[in-house]
Amino acid sequence: MNRKADVIIVGGGVIGSSIAYNLLEDGFDGKVIVFEKDKTYEFASTPRSAGGIRQLFTTKVNVEMGKYAVDKYSTFQEDMAIDGENAKIDFQQNGYLFLVENKEDVVALQRQKKVQKNCGVDSTILQKDELKNIIPELNTDDLSGGIYSGLDGYLDPYSVMQGYIKKSRQLGATYVNEKIVKVNKNGNNVSGVFTENGTEYYAPIVINCAGPWGTELSETVNLPLPIIPLKRQIIQFNIEEPLENRLPLTVDPTGVYFRHEGNSIICGFGEEVKPGIEFSWKRSFFTDFLWPILANRIPNFERAKIQSGWAGIYSHNTMDQNAIVGEHPELKGYHLALGFSGHGMQQAPAVGKGLSEYIRNNHYDTIDLSVLGFDRFKNNKLVIEEAIV
After folding, report:
1. Rounded CA gap, 103 and 127, in Å?
2. Which of 9, 78, 90, 145 is deepest in the core (most CB within 10 A)?
3. pLDDT at 307 > cutoff 80
4. Is the pTM higher than 0.90?
């Protein structure tokens, strides 16, 4: 195999594969190699995601990326078709719903809605008595209202990832199942990577999309990142009495979220855990913590039975919980797409498009992602997002 490329992407999950796809779809005629150490993707972050796609953010850049994702995932099946066969991703646009308890929180939702409206997103502030129009069984006794976006929803993350991978390969990307252990540089320029077996690959552009493992890789060129891996558990359960409507992805004031998954329900919460990469899940997380909150919010959840569970890893940006995207200011040709803090699936389309534009044209066109650059940490221009789940 030719070990020279024009672009090397480290990490073949949804972020890396979206970048590869967008580069080649947009007319990049160079050689693109994507390295993915986990051939089965068993422990990759993408297929362990809850799959939520939302526009309900409080910062302009995140709202714009969410809107772009809704647009792209709405046509994804046709866009990623190969030989006439669509890429099925089961995008269920059942909406997103954030619930709040206090009247002060409703005022905050009004501010959020203004940002969303300015970005062309049609979100709706719901008063307490209007919430049951969305979820008839909802206990609203302690609620003041919520914010809802009907075009948002959820999808099958693994299928999205495979759609990007297959289309990228069709367009000419090469996927290599080897672990990258070192980024190489020549002076102030990136020069390539080393694999675990000692093979060197050369490229003037290296994009670090290695998720929870990206920080360790960046440290091989003495460029530390404010990203830590945090375990997040998801529990799937069945209920005895079905709900009247399909659920939007609903976020309780406690931070517990839930949505339909087929005829079952999945739920989760960003609990405090020690940083580390660890994939165990516990039934007690549901029975002792999640279940009482869920049963209080929807009485149908009182009679529930766990079906399954799993854990995935958030790449948590400790500075402002937002993605780090773009060329590192201290190493030319070394690009980052990391630290999504749980938003990678919904921001993958926009990040792929943005980095394609930047690499080909040296600027962003569709969405200005420069605010997510690494230099914001040194310039104290953090992106403060209030709608974090």
Report:
1. 10
2. 9
3. yes
4. yes
